[in-house]
Amino acid sequence: MQLTSYAHSIEEIDQLATVGVGEIILSYGPLSRGGGLDLATVNLLAQYACQRELAVSLEWDILVTEQQFAESCQQFAQLPLELFVGIRVSDFGVMQFIYQQHPSLKLIPILEGSCHNLPAILSVLELLAGRVKRVVLSIEISSGELEQIIPEIDLPVELLLLGPIPLYYSPRQLLTPLIKQERSCGELIQLFATSQEGPHHGFPLVESDHGTLIYNTRHLWLLNALPRLEQMGLTVGRVDLRAVKDHQQKGGMWQEIAALFNQFEESKAINLKDAYPFNTIHGFFRANKSDVLFPKLKNHRLTPIGENYLGEVVDVIKGELLAVVWRRNGFLPPLESSLYLLTPEGKKINFRLKWCRDTQNEPIETPIQKDEIVLINPIKRVSVKSQLYLSCQPGE
Amino acid sequence: MSSKIPELLAPAGSLEKLKVAVLYGADALYLGGQQFGLRTAADNFTQRELVEGCEFAHARGVKVYVVVNAFLHDQELAELPPYVKFLEQVGVDALIVADLGVLKVVRSHSGLPVHLSTQASVINSYGAKFWQRAGVTRVILGREVSIAHAGEIRRATGIPVEIFIHGSMCSSYSGNCVISNFTQGRDSNRGGCAHSCRFEYSYSDQDGAVIDSSSPYFLSSKDLNGLSLLPQVVEANIDSIKIEGRMKGHHYAGVVTKAYASLLAHYQKIGQWDQNILQQQTEELSRVINRDYTSGNLLHPAQGDSIYQQRENRPLEYQMVGIVHQVVKDDFILVEVKSAFELGDRLELIPFAGEAQEFELSWIRDLAGGQVVRTRPSTMVRIPYLPAAQTFNLLRGRCAEVVCN
Predict the structure, then answer these.
(1) What is the C-alpha to C-alpha distance for residues B253 and B392, in angstroms, rounded to an integer?
(2) What pLDDT digit, counting tens, does each position of B228-279 carry?
(3) Closest chain A residue to B382 measured between Cα atoms?
(4) Does domain B7-175+219-306 correspond to CATH entry 3.20.20.70?
(5) Per residue in A146-163, pLDDT tens?
(6) Does ipTM come in above 0.95?
(7) Which of A171, B148, B321, B393 has its CA 20 to 30 A from that of A288?
(8) What CATH class does B318-398 carry?
(9) Half-sphere exposure of residue A151, counting CA atoms within 13 Å on the CB side?
(10) How many residue pairs from chains A and B have C-beta atoms closer than 8 A?
(11) A123 interface with B at CB cutoff 8 Å
(12) CA-to-CA distance for B93 and B62, rounded, in angstroms?
């Protein structure tokens, strides 16, 4: 498995080259969500990386509105495109643009947000036929699912193994109002937010030219799963150490991570995790049960079932009547018919129809139309929303 | 007149709300079944209700679109084909999807038209082209696109476009918020959104120093209101305008649908925008549940003033008290009580067209004929006949007079 990571300086490229990283990622400020390098630095670093025989991919991960599109394309065109082995893209519109307008460029679709099933992933590859260098899968796909998905993809596959987890991306500049200061172009505002209504403290917030980002309070850590991922056929593991500010510490970590990629040793992985300066989680790698939703309030006893369903009780006047909104069109049960009510609590109450009147208190003699309100004889222990059924089909 | 009137697409959170939205002027409705949508807490439609809802809407020339817009994992995708076949059998007019895998299943198991959900965040012409190649027949653009740019996307691609015109907004790009997923284990893109953007937050800087901010709700967007921008919408040749709100009540469904429908209907008939209707309906929109209004990104990119600095919705001036179930000419109106009201209260009947009519309750009787002084929710009562009343009209009262929740 190959290791890829972000580089922001000549020194970082040297560090990455030294530990044997095959490919680096460059983020260009105008095209990268969290901000990035200026044009001159991208040029410099791309050329330097190539001299050091490192492959370079470019990150264009902002979502681009129609209004910004032409400008983004111009900024993209200024870059040394021939030096990039692939363009990392999140916006399907940007993928389509590169596919259509830059036939010599390869794409690295970032499918971290929206493609959690194999047919979706294969559809992207089909729509970008022949132009995809590799595909970046979502960290919300569990290991069990990855085991099924990765072998079905005929291209290299990348996954984030270590780094911050993006939670939220807005085009609105939401931090400027908090600090009550204008932000100059290219500058970042970085704060932390703590929920007053939940247990989570210190969400990292970033405001860039492209809007506002929120990251999880804990970073993703999947380096302990390297052997399993390798077995699944994962081709590229991405490590994002941009949040590690200490240059020396970062260099040391890359060295240890590269060593793990070369030869995995559990004890070394544990030591590395202990030394990592942020709290970590496995995310949804072990299992994704986020569809086991919050308890649904809907009472399924109130769901009408079958052909014998007649309607729903909408009013109860004790000792006098039940009002039913009739749901079965063109049907009048004969008097003395055997009926039953299913209450919201699940109780079944059998009774006989003694009388049946309309809302003007006149006896009903013709078939009842759907949605009519019908008054019937009172039944004890029945509440509103109880469902009315015929005990057997007419004629049975 | 070269510009066409856009389709008015209203939310249907339940069968009864569907009927309300149809009768108050929707051209089309969107609703969710019991699975695969993003509003798991809404009542949603059983298969029986879906059949009935389609029959009711189609009988009145109103289209029905069903949302299947969750981002599904492989296991869930396997459960989708029978549901898609059922929806085609029922005769729904289109499905709303966000996931390429779902799109593939829908296209291989039905001939139903597919609208791309706003969850896919298409915000440029190339994005629309990408999805057009994938097989969608309409694109519901991301809420970050202005009306003018929506028109440009329409012109550049030829694909019909739909924009959100009214209701609650995510402050994030739709589909790009997974706060619920990682903090509460609830997948916001599979119907589990915990609305963390409405929570209160405190802030600190890089050194840990607390930021003294008067904006504890920095993520909470105001609600979108594009009523006054309908002339631009028509000018831009937008195909469909959508009202958000499957989780909201009957009053919202009826009043908001009516506001947009009445302004569009007058324009369609006369060819001019009526300022009186605009003013009257703007006031009506202030009477339904909202978090203050913003034009969002419809004209310019939304910024700090689009954020709502409160935890709760704006206090309501009006409360819906009931829904008309039967009108017996010159005798009585049968009302299902939604909120309590009393003898002598002044209520308003909201007709399907025209201004609300105020009246005083001179008598109230229950279904057994007994006199009622104060009604109870979830009961049926008779009140005096009003010539303007029709089945499924809404009744409301001022909060000063009735009990507001």
Answers:
(1) 12
(2) 999 999 999 999 999 999 999 999 999 999 999 999 999 999 999 999 999 9
(3) A359
(4) yes
(5) 999 999 999 999 999 999
(6) no
(7) A171
(8) mainly beta
(9) 7
(10) 280
(11) yes
(12) 10
